[in-house]
Amino acid sequence: MRINLKGINTTRKRLADGSFRQYYYHRTAGTPLSGRPGSPSFIADYEAAERSISERKRGTFESLVRDFTLSPEFAKNRPSTQKEYIRMLRKGEQNIGNMPLVALNDPRVRQDFTDWRADVARTSGLREGDNRLAVISAMLSWGVDTGRVRQNHLLNFKRLYKSDRAEIIWLPEHVEAFMKTAPLELQRALILALHTGQRQGDLRELRWSNYDGEYISLRQSKGKRAGSRGRLVNVRCMAALKSMLDEMDRSSEFILTTKTGQPFKKRYLIKLWGEAMTAANLDEVMFPHIDEPQELHFHDLRGTAVTMLNEAGCSIGEIVAITGHSLKTAATILDQYLARTKHLADSAMAKFEASPSAQFANRLQTKQPKTKRGDDK
Q1: Apex CA 290: angle with CA 289 and CA 292, to 5°?
Q2: Rounded to whole angstroms, how far apart are CA atoms 103 and 140?
Q3: Closest Cα partner for 196 from 54, 319, 351?
Q4: pTM, to two decimals
Q5: Which residue, of 68, 105, 137, 373, has the greatest Cβ tally within 10 A?
Q6: What does CATH list as the number for 172-348?
Q7: CA 342: distance to chain centroid?
Q8: Beta strands of 122-278 (E only): which ranges?
Q9: How confident is the model at residue 367, as a pLDDT?
Q10: How far apart are CA 90 and CA 95, in angstroms?
Q11: Exposure of 131 by Cβ count < 10 A (0-12 exposed, 13-18 middle, 19+ buried)?
């Protein structure tokens, strides 16, 4: 049986006879590990180091982090979510790791956390500060459920970062500029996103087995948990998308690949996308009624698809059947993506003008008021 032991440092030293020997240390405890990895003495030293850390952290914020990240509830999150949670919790440990658990039950701890969030916001941005506090709040809620703390004093904290991208969608001229300069593999990504309204992560994972020549069928990754499946969506491929897919090479099992035929990694796609946006002069775009230039994002293609579907006359039920949003968020979708587009405003006023019930308003014109005799003197 093979055991994967984490947190081990290896050093290599030259001995007096000129040969080399490897030494192993427990990274966090800083203690040496005797023997070779996997040997009884090595395992015993490793377990002793782990126990010493557990004893040292017992009853502190660090111990809560440790218990939370080893819990079955935490394991239900997607690997990418787990990785990001651990990153932010480690940042918290560096600053407040020694905080006793009893302090978490004191309402005044909220100020300690928000003060720390303010420091993070100044150095790493408002959004990062909010995200770190949100992860700690999720951990505290878990701590309440499992009896480790009495109350989550970060519940419903007020966020510093607010993002309103309601008016930020890809306009035809943006798409045209991107398609003129972007590499072929990124052009394919844009067409897929615009014609399906799916998230970048789901598009990166899209395989040819998801396409039957007429429909793209997939289970969305968002909302997936251990033992449960994501939302199933079936998107019928219209002529432009179908033509692109049918003409593509299928040497890889993935639809979107790099030039070398490898599936896209998240960071690599983000890097290439950023370079393509700069080349197309789309890294700073001006929008009507927005004073500052905005940066178009890949995710804005999802909002653009929602907007286009609505402008085509689709009902909210038809839209969410394609995008995979829940009906509970339908009102939010309308508010965030649809309510402020010029096309919809034009359409609304055209309906207003054609409505029989609005004819009295459409006939209104200004005219000089009638005056009583003698009023003009």
Answers
A1: 150
A2: 12
A3: 319
A4: 0.64
A5: 68
A6: 1.10.443.10
A7: 28
A8: 215-219, 232-236
A9: 76
A10: 9
A11: buried
Mean of pLDDT values over 237-244? 94
φ, ψ for residue 307, nearest 5 deg: -60, -45
Measured CA to CA, the distance from residue 82 to residue 86 in angstroms comes to 6
Nearest Cα to Cα of residue 91 among 64, 58, 125, 120:
120
Nearest Cα to 273, choosing from 347, 354, 175, 187? 187
Residue 121, helix vs strand vs coil: helix
61-69 helix and 126-145 helix, angle to the nearest 10 degrees: 80
Nearest to 248 by CA among 328, 329, 192, 331: 192
**Residue 301 neighbours by CB distance under 10 Å:** 27
**Nearest one of 270, 347, 341 to 304, comparing CA atoms:** 341
Count of all residues that appear for the chain in the document: 377
Burial of 132 (0-12, 13-18, 19+ CB in 10 A): buried
CA distances for 125 relative to 85, 113, 162, 245, angstroms: 17, 16, 12, 40
Return the residue matching tokens 């978490």: 104
Q: Is 133 exposed, middle or buried (0-12, 13-18, 19+ CB in 10 A)?
A: buried
- Residue range 335-348, pLDDT digits in tens: 666 555 666 667 77
Residue 355 token pair: 């409505």
Q: Per residue in 295-304, pLDDT tens?
A: 889 999 988 8
What single-letter DSSP state applies at residue 29?
Answer: T
> For residue 3, what pLDDT band results from cuts at 50, 70 and 90?
low
